[in-house]
Amino acid sequence: MQPLHQLDRRLIWKAYRKPGLINSRSGASQDLQGLEMHRLNKMLNGGMFHTQVVGPVSHHDFGSTPSPSSPSQCQDTFMSGTGPVPAPGSDEKIPPAYNYDNQPWRLEFRDIPEAGTRSALTTRLMANASLPKGDLLPLMNAWGYGFVSEYLVEGDMFIHNDILIFLYRVLCYPTGSEESHEPRRQLPALHEMEPLDKSGSYVLQATIIVQDGSNQEAMKTASQHLFGFREQLRSAVRLEQADRLSLDTRAK
């Protein structure tokens, strides 16, 4: 397939509720689903747990309401104090301004990789859940989570057989911009966003999603495909296992 460009807002939330507010019943069944749900509840019960909310955005959402004293140009359109307007004589339609109240969100849960495994791959439980559009602050506060910060991820998604390849970079809000204690309702111009890696490098992530982690045959096949893909890219890109501590979502 052709690469799919992705531009996401990523919001970080920290749990401040007291541990033990979520109660889960442990029955006699020891099936995989029960174990995963037990692990999920155990993780969410942690008083120092961080989670991530992701919202897709487009290029037209950035710089939709710039300051009248500092007009900027984006996507071949001229920007004014009231929003982008097409160039004189152009039939191009005015892109809509960013509407925070219509922003879709999804909650991404990523478990901490298990310690002591000798595999050269990182495996962990993943779960996604759709959230209501718009302002998430009342909902997340009701769940016991407070807003910490946010950043932007820009990249392209490729699919190679059963492998998801994500080539991306992390963008931070401009230095000197006012720190917000809640998700931003307006976004600066995209060219003002600052790369976290000043060298301009990108991260390449190769992933295979296995629906049933207890299926050893499926896990083995997925591992073999990832190892084969690593060999294919050995002369161009060095793929290596991520440090499990860098994927720990608990505060240190």
From TrEMBL:
Q: Which UniProt keywords apply?
A: Activator, Nucleus, Transcription, Transcription regulation
Query: For this UniProt entry, what is the primary localization, expressed as one broad class?
Result: nucleus
Q: Give the top-rank taxon of the lineage listed in the UniProt record for this protein.
A: Eukaryota
Recorded GO terms, molecular function? transcription coregulator activity
The keyword Coiled coil belongs to this UniProt entry's keyword annotation: no
Q: Which InterPro entries match?
A: Mediator_Med18
- Name one cellular component (GO) term: mediator complex
Please give the residue ranges the record annotates as the region Disordered: 56-96
Family according to the record: Belongs to the Mediator complex subunit 18 family.
Q: How does it assemble?
A: Component of the Mediator complex.
Q: What is this protein called?
A: Mediator of RNA polymerase II transcription subunit 18
**Which species is listed as the source?**
Aspergillus sclerotialis
Taxonomic lineage is: Eukaryota, Fungi, Dikarya, Ascomycota, Pezizomycotina
